[in-house]
Amino acid sequence: MSQKRFKVQLDPLIQRLPGLTKRTRQFETFIYLTLIAFVAVGSLFALLSMFRFFQRIAAEQVCPLPAAPAVITSQIVVTPDGDDGVINCETLDIIIGNGGEVIISSFVTENGSTSGDWGGTLRVSNLTIEPGGVLHADGMGYTDAQSEAANGTPDAASGQTGGSGGGHGGAGGEGNADQTNPASAPGLPYGNAEEPLTLGSAGSDAGEGGAGGAGGGAIRLEVSGNLVINGRISANGLAGTASANGSGGGGAGGSIWIEAQTFSGGGTVEANGGGAENATYQGGGGGGGRLRMFCISDNDFTGSATVTGGQTESSQDGGTGSRLGPTCRPDTPTILKQFRSNNTTEILVGQATSENTVVFAADMSDIDAGETLALQLEVRPIGTPFTNVPTHTQANNQANPQTCLTPPGNCGRITVTGMTRSTEYHWQVRVRDSKGGFSTWASFGGNAETDRDVLVAGLAANISLVSGNSQTGTVFTALADPLVVLVTDSSGFPVPGYNVTWSVTQGQNGGVLTSGSSTTDQNGISTRTYSLGRIAGTNRVRASGSGLSGSPVEFTFTATPDAISYFTITAPQIALVSASMDTVTVTAYDQYNNVKTDYSGSPSLTAVDPADTNAALGGTLSPSSVTFSPADNGIKSINNLSYDTEASIKIRVLDGVAAGYSNTVAVVTALGSCPDPDGLIDLNQTWTADTNNQGIFDCRGLDILVTNSAVLTVRPFENGNTNYTDDFGVTILADNIRIDTGAAIAANSNGYRADRGPGYSGSGTGGSYGGRAFGAGTTTINGSVYEPVNLGSGGDEFAGGGSIKLVVDNGYVDVNGSIQAHGTGGAGDAGSGGSIWVITDVLGGTGSIAANGGSTSGAFRPGGGGRIALYFEQNGDTGAGITAFDYNPANSRIAAVGGRGNFGGWWGGPGTIYVEQTGVDVSTQGSLFVDQQNNSAGYQAGLLEGDYRFKLLSLTRQGHLMVLGNASTLTITDSSGLTGDTTAPILLNYGTFIAPDGLEINGVTVDINGEIDLGGDTSNSSVTVGNSVNAGLRLRASTWAHDQNYQYQFESVHVASKGVLELISAQNGNTNYTDDWGLVLTADDITVDAGGRISADGYGHPANRGQGFVSGGGGSYGGQGFASGITSTYGDVYQRRSLAAAPRVLQEEEQ
């Protein structure tokens, strides 16, 4: 059988059914396909099915009401279908005129519940109800024979008792009880105030048969245009009827749900409960129904909208139902925000908060300007879907509108407390107005509802390392990657706002945490960056949280040395001409004193003059270079080095700009023998240096013991000319040296004779060496702080102290008696202290070591202190019974003080005491002590021009120190490496003073007569003065480094309670006062504590000078000095840069 295709033309049918919607046309395709099926199979059943289907669809969609301009003036009953109750007139305008009555009946499934029961949903374009016109569902709810709404159905009455009212939006009222039977329980409220679709319940019958009134039905109006109500829309319950002595209860009001673009008119909208006919035992009133009446753009309705309970004469009235509107919907919020409890910190979409209080905010507006507004919130855990039922409502309505332009100000706000921790939430809001209207819901975040809007984190429980561990970098540089830890709660969620404690547990001299935050971010992350310390090796940083699992988190880093900067060379003190020296060790270092363990290179080796290391000597040093490989780890030993000429040399090692110098090596043709054959010195002896023994007494193989109060006196060689470089003291080589109590090795008065030596400056002065003699100039300072070998200089009348050097390679020097190299004094200008240089494996003893300047009687000038240097690997050896030697001069075991004068407080300047623990301290970077035992006339110890590095510089008891030469550098390698005491001795620097950033100056007055360099960039460094002990910092406006165009800049300056910052002006001494200037100090922060001072006292023009100087008068500046003319004032009130004039100093005869 051939297949044929047919097409049914539906247009005539559609024209005959004006209520069909566009949906009907969509079924044309279905019909077409069904006809094909019919032709294909020849089935009559298929054709019948098609027409039955079409008949059903058409019935659902057909509008039973005539379209305008036709006016309904008679009764039309619309019965909802059993599918959805929709009456689709959405393209039509409907007019119900006077006398017109449109009744919306209901559909009930009789299943014992409200499910499947509904009234009618009428969709229209525009709807007008004229005066006298009615659209209603009065009594179209449940009957007294139906009990679908279990809560709303009242109990049956007994005896003659009246029936009780049905419930819906409000509860029903109780009927009157007879003499025997109580009132039956009335119906209770049910249904949804926001979605009023349920039918009203009937009242119960009276005990003697009066029927209960039926409940109101349900009307839903969806008006896409204008709704005009001048008649009535109602879904009222009916009154209970009377029979014999009782009447039934009233039916509850039904449901009215109106949505329209606009509404207007003065009619009535009612979902009231029914009353009960009057009887002896009157039934109770029905409860009010439910009403929702919302427009979109305009509300001009002036009529009434009621949901009152049924009214009775003697029984209980029904309760009032629920009513929302009439009102226009508020606008849907468009600005949604969430904040922490401080109402300031915004929580972005998906972020976390450590608090369990969240502030939810949104804009609110409504076309009805006179209405007030409240925000409604639905917030639920992720995984719990929204129900469109608010969980929270703003407590107090706010004015309309709330723009939320500066959130959370001008916003609707709801603060939710006690939110469950370790829970992810999503939320939505809407706006409710004062008439019950509400907007559509607006969901926060613009994300899927399975995505979190906010995480309420639990309490911090865990901390873990995320990244940044096990990095390697160059010392004193920032690591490439940040240090990252994660803080989570017990459920593994991140915890924001937690303060992680970060600490540097092994900073290796300067390791510091820099940028980043200790407080965890929204992802529970705390991040810090770390700069490695100056010392190569392991750095450690710890991140911890009290009570957290996994705490502390340990970070470990490796710091590698910086580029090669310098070398150190350890050489023997003595060598024979052309013979291989004992082991010479060359060590490569970076600028931070780290051994350059990865150094490779072949630096040159050169013999240079110890007095001028830039001058190469004429002999041959072999080999002339040394080769490092990475396997040497930065340390190279040379066992075949020799020099072919008798001389005192230093060995210079040089690779580019990296250089280093050895100690002085005495290269001699022969060594002097030990004058004592057994080393036991129990009687006084004198050992004298000469050109044959070169002052070197080789007692190796012996233990020298000075005992029985014996004195071993050593005399230097002094050739009597003015070339003081070829004079020398005494060097003793031994396996061990012990000086018993009462015994001594001494060189007192065995230095240069009177009027001789590099520290003698001429008639009328004492001798200088490590310290200036009283009255002597700075040029008299001489000798090395590291290798004190010079003889003490004589004064006008008395000799200086001699020179003692003790060398014990693998044994001990145990000083229980004394080692002395004092200058001599008396009734004449005194000599300086001499030299004491001890090199040993173990140092110990309870005795003393001293090289003091000579003291005088009468009006004579005392000598300056000498120089002492102690080198040892170990201080004390309990196993050998050797007590550690106390080398702190404050404890009186060691001294190099200036001599005492017996006239007017004259004192020589102190000498120097250098201490280095070999193998612990970097070569020539040990500790320097200067101490004057609280007796000073202001004279200093001195360092000649050169480069000096000390881990500790201690100036005590008026032990002043000056560093000579503009080219000098004095480096304090540790921020706490500069110490003093309450006398605040002066550290006068003519070169560059270098110290770490964050320097604390306590117990010392640092006087900058050159340049100051803190941390390599003073402008970004900080300094503190006097936070624990009296201290000062003097800055000068004019030095070799500073002029008017380059002054001083710091990041921060802190003058603490015991500090003084002195700012010294510049003046050139002529009468052109315009080229003098004051000091300019620039800093990001300057703090002066109570008791601290910034001072320029006395640093203006001196006596008899300055623009404001007038002979015979006091100095003037901003104010007029006494007896000075009015023209003597000068300067600028706005820019105060001039110096003040000093008053004239009156001479004695003028007083």
What does this structure look like?
This protein is mostly beta strands. It has eight domains: 11-61; 67-322, no CATH class; 336-456, Sandwich (Immunoglobulin-like); 462-560, Sandwich (Immunoglobulin-like), CATH 2.60.40; 566-668, Immunoglobulin-like; 697-962, no CATH class; 965-1097; 1100-1151, no CATH class. It is built from three helices and 74 strands. Strands 43, 44, 46, 48, 50, 52, 54, 56, 57, 60 and 63 form an eleven-stranded mixed beta sheet that branches. Strands 58-61-64-67-70-72-74 form a seven-stranded parallel beta sheet, with no helix packed on it. The longest helix has 20 residues, at 22-41. The N and C termini lie far apart (152 Å). Residues 1-61 and 1141-1151 have low confidence and may be disordered.
Descriptive terms for the model:
4% helix; 74 strands; 7-stranded parallel sheet; 1151 residues; 11-stranded mixed sheet; single chain; Immunoglobulin-like; 3 helices; 34% strand; 8 domains; disordered N terminus; mainly beta
Based on helices, strands and strand pairing, what is the structural class? mainly beta
Number of strands: 74
In helices, the fraction of residues equals under 10%
Intertermini distance: 152 Å
Helical run tally:
3
Q: Mean of the pLDDT scores? A: 91
Shape: elongated
Main beta sheet strand tally, sense and closure:
11 strands, mixed
